[in-house]
Amino acid sequence: MAKKIKDENGNTYVQKKPFYKRVWFWIVAVIAIFIIGGALGGGSDDNGGTKVSDKSSSSKKSSTKYYKIGDSVKVGDVIYTLKSVEKTDERNEFEDEQPANVLKVVYHVKNESDDDLAIGTDLDVYGPDNNKLETYAIENTLDSIAPGKEADVTAGFGTNKLGEFELQFAPMVSTEKAAKFKVDVQ
Length: 186
Hints:
Oligomer: single chain
Organism: Ligilactobacillus animalis
Structural class: mainly beta
Protein name: DUF4352 domain-containing protein
Transmembrane segments: 23-43
Helix content: 10-25%
Keywords: Membrane, Signal, Transmembrane, Transmembrane helix
Domain DUF4352: 67-176
């Protein structure tokens, strides 16, 4: 409660408690601590994919889980299996860009959803310098598969550097986190 004080002239003043001694201050402080603590400690180390195979996976310095060639990962209602990533001599004479190297990525897709699934647009590749690679027209698969069906997909990507590549798989229209694979191509 506020304290009333009279000065020598008879004026009455109300002395209020300092803000840090008020109940509302401590309520706000406790709520802020919970929010900050939740934001700092509430992160998940899984990248959203559910591993289907029982093969071991490798992980990097960060808490992101990376898969390798041969692993099958479920993203939403789609199962992706990375079959191979290799440098190819195939070139497209009609491409504007002619990179030093072309990667040929082959993966398998199983559609467990109730809708048709676009394939060939569900892969992003990042190079050793962490820049996103542009697709390169070789024998790329751009199609769709019906519910409950499966298909192999081939995609080409141009790069000037070889090294460690990160492949991220997710359906084109999806809110699920992408399944991330790491491969080394020399």
